[in-house]
Design goal:
The protein is built from 7 helices and 13 strands. With about 300 residues, the chain is α+β, with helices and mostly antiparallel strands.
């Protein structure tokens, strides 16, 4: 399967707010020209749409490469390390892109040992949860919003087009080339600059990573990059592994194993009313967007 890469760096502190930015939001009157509509529709069709494929949920075991975990003693006989290696971590993703990371210590684990391991345990869950807070806006339905009311304008750009979005935290500009590949996503008055990475599949481009940089915070530049592996489970292309880097502080790897994916029967029906979809996405904004912000401060 071929890979299409665009290089940059992914924002950690503010990118989590942007993670929901291209999901359906408030409805606005909007008039697009016939040519603009053609560009938007062609761009949407370029990307694999997991929701349209019938995705309902994903549940996996999380296996960390503990040699890459910060704040964890390197000695394999360390008590905390041995406890964490025996702990079961579970990742759950629902049809709206909301994720949850659970953990279960081995039965009869001493409470004092659990308390001693809690800081690293919370760090591990934040790695997974934080990364997947940024995933839905690009990996669930593709990077172009599903409704025309969310498109502010379509214009020409170097070697392609610039699509401006009407979204919370906007304006957000999505740059695409002449083949409708998203090459850059710019927000926060140009201070947040994302470069998503896609892989070619028979069903369309699949989101497999992001490089971005965030200069909008008061504590200096934050850089994040992650790469995702993808597997086909129950006919659905879903994430299967991750390599996450945040500034110079974090370089961690984990896999999603023993996954089960629930899939609904796909029926051809009329598109949902925008108001109903917008209400669903308002719930998405209630998610906690802080995990990667905390990661950037790890030393």
């Amino acid at each position: 399967m071929g890979r299409v890469r665009r290089y940059g760096i992914m924002p950690a502190s503010r990118v989590l707010m942007f993670c929901a930015a291209v999901l359906p939001t408030t409805s606005y009157p909007q008039q697009l020209s016939a040519n603009d509509k053609k560009v938007v529709e062609s761009a949407r069709a370029k990307y694999y749409n997991l929701s349209a494929a019938g995705f309902q949920s994903l549940r996996c075991s999380v296996k960390f490469d503990f040699s890459t975990v910060p704040m964890l003693p390197s000695a394999k006989d360390d008590t905390t390390r041995k406890l964490l290696e025996a702990t079961e971590f579970t990742f759950v993703l629902d049809d709206k892109g909301r994720s949850e990371v659970l953990h279960q210590y081995p039965r009869d684990t001493d409470p004092n040992a659990q308390q001693h391991a809690s800081q690293v345990t919370n760090l591990l869950t934040s790695f997974v949860g934080g990364l997947f807070q940024t995933w839905p806006s690009k990996g669930l339905q593709g990077p172009i919003p599903p409704f025309e009311s969310q498109i502010e304008s379509v214009g020409l750009a170097d070697h392609g087009y610039a699509i401006s979005l009407r979204v919370p935290g906007g304006p957000v500009k999505v740059l695409i080339d002449e083949s409708y590949l998203v090459t850059e996503i710019v927000s926060a008055a140009g201070k947040i600059d994302e470069h998503p990475v896609y892989s070619v599949s028979p069903e369309g481009l699949v989101f497999v990573g992001n490089d971005a940089i965030d200069d909008s915070g008061q504590n200096g530049r934050v850089e994040v990059k992650y790469d995702l592996g993808v597997s086909v489970i129950n006919g659905l292309r879903v994430p299967s592994s991750a390599h996450l880097r945040v500034n110079q502080n974090i370089d961690v790897k984990f896999t999603l194993d023993d996954c089960t994916a629930q899939k609904a029967k796909v029926l051809q029906v009329d598109p949902p009313l925008e108001g109903a979809a917008n209400q669903l996405c308002k719930n998405f904004w209630k998610l906690d967007h802080r995990p990667l912000m905390r990661m950037a401060n790890i030393r």
